[in-house]
Design goal:
Order of helices and strands: HHHHHHH
CATH architecture of the largest domain: Orthogonal Bundle
Distance between the termini: 34 Å
Helix content: 55-70%
Strand content: under 5%
Radius of gyration: 33 Å
Number of helices: 7
Number of domains: 2
Length: about 180
């Protein structure tokens, strides 16, 4: 039992550590990629933080070690050095790789399903839950509201009296040993 408890505590500590940032992803930007101008580097980090790694798919190119992510980080920095605005760099990457490269796709008619699907699923879950709750037996609720009839009350009193008599024999309240 103690061994199980120790393992349980270890797993909890590990999960807490991972969720608090100790196990968070470290930026994969290599020293040779970093721009000498801190403002340009800050803009590059802002842009690359919003671009999806096409290899990893759920990481930004800033967090990915994939060679394609490195190429995209370098491309972003090159475009910034030529004087492109943040929007121009983003638009260039999207034109080249499609909107899938954006970690947060824009809200539009072509992405309407993507944005509304979670809301639809939530509404359907609420509807199903209400239907399930509404299907409970109405007869059981009516019986509970009516209470006990005279015959049932007599049987209950008899059982309770027998239980009280057994308490004296066993010495423990509520035990009904047969």
């Amino acid at each position: 039992m103690m061994r199980f408890l120790k393992q349980y505590v270890f797993v909890l500590i590990l999960a807490a550590t991972a969720s608090t940032g100790f196990g968070a992803a470290v930026h994969a930007v290599q020293p040779d990629e970093i721009l000498s101008d801190p403002r340009l580097e800050s803009r590059a980090r802002e842009i690359s933080g919003g671009l999806r790694c096409l290899v990893c798919q759920n990481q930004s190119i800033d967090d990915s070690d994939a060679p394609l992510a490195r190429d995209l980080r370098i491309l972003v920095r090159e475009r910034l050095q030529t004087g492109d605005s943040n929007e121009a760099v983003r638009d260039y990457i999207v034109a080249r790789y499609g909107e899938f490269v954006l970690l947060k796709p824009p809200f539009g008619t072509h992405t309407l399903l993507l944005w509304l699907a979670p809301l639809f699923v939530l509404v359907m879950a609420v509807v199903m839950a209400r239907r399930t709750m509404g299907r409970r037996s109405p007869g059981a609720a009516a019986v509970a509201e009516q209470g006990l009839n005279a015959e049932e009350r007599q049987r209950l009193d008899k059982i309770l009296l027998e239980g009280a008599g057994d308490d004296d024999k066993t010495g423990s309240p509520g035990s009904n040993v047969s």
